[in-house]
Specification:
about 220 residues, alpha+beta, seven-stranded antiparallel beta sheet
Length: about 220
């Protein structure tokens, strides 16, 4: 009888400890995911408000081994300002549309944690000079070439009027936390065609990101 009582007490104690440990781990992971979501939300808002210094502060330091910060800032400013031919207009991202993966531990790089963040992204390319349609209502040769260039990047623009292209896509970022970031979360845009990411980080991370990205696209088509 006493043995059964001790066994019952032991099981209840074990269950309580398990729940406490599990809850702590779950809370920790959710807290990290929330940090990532908050960061990316602020990064997107800074981009929309053209606060490019703030955007750059969120970027992973590996980016600046390829391009220095001043050049990056100038590129972001130029993209926002446009040129004689085009200007770009970003459609505000709905913050509740951001989704974050679980936080993952790198097997190839000690101390590295990473997560993927994706969201629907839309922007307009507005022609400053030529129209996209001719007098018969057909797309001009220039418009067809522009569409082809986007299609090669797996982007499928919609000509909404004579001067405006609307592009809808799924944007994805990788959040990385490691020794190089001084144990804080930093971010880099992901593109499956940018294989240099495998050289900067690791094939493990790049392949994981690529599989995650294509899984997202498959689910969105269903």
């Amino acid at each position: 009888m006493m043995t059964e009582i001790y066994k019952t007490i032991y099981m209840k104690t074990f269950s309580l400890l398990f729940l406490l440990i599990f809850s702590t781990l779950s809370f920790g992971q959710n807290s990290e995911q929330q940090t990532v979501l908050n960061d990316v939300s602020e990064m997107i808002m800074a981009t929309e408000n053209q606060k490019f210094e703030a955007v750059i502060d969120y970027m992973h330091p590996a980016i600046f081994e390829l391009v220095d910060k001043n050049t990056m800032k100038a590129s972001l400013q130029q993209m926002s300002k446009g040129n004689e031919e085009f200007k770009m207009e970003i459609i505000p991202v709905q913050k509740n549309s951001l989704k974050v993966s679980s936080v993952r531990e790198s097997k190839s790089t000690e101390g590295r944690r990473y997560a993927f963040i994706h969201y629907p992204f839309q922007f307009k390319m507005i022609s400053q000079k030529e129209e996209f349609y001719d007098i018969l209502g057909n797309l001009t040769e220039r418009a067809l070439n522009i569409r082809l260039q986007f299609n090669r990047q797996r982007l499928y623009p919609e000509f909404v009027d004579n001067y405006t292209l609307l592009i809808k896509t799924t944007s994805m970022m990788i959040g990385i936390k490691d020794n190089e970031t001084q144990d804080s979360w930093k971010y880099i845009n992901f593109d499956p065609n940018h294989e240099f990411l495998a050289e900067i980080f690791s094939e493990e991370l790049f392949n994981d990101a690529k599989n995650y990205y294509y899984d997202i696209l498959s689910l969105e088509k269903q």
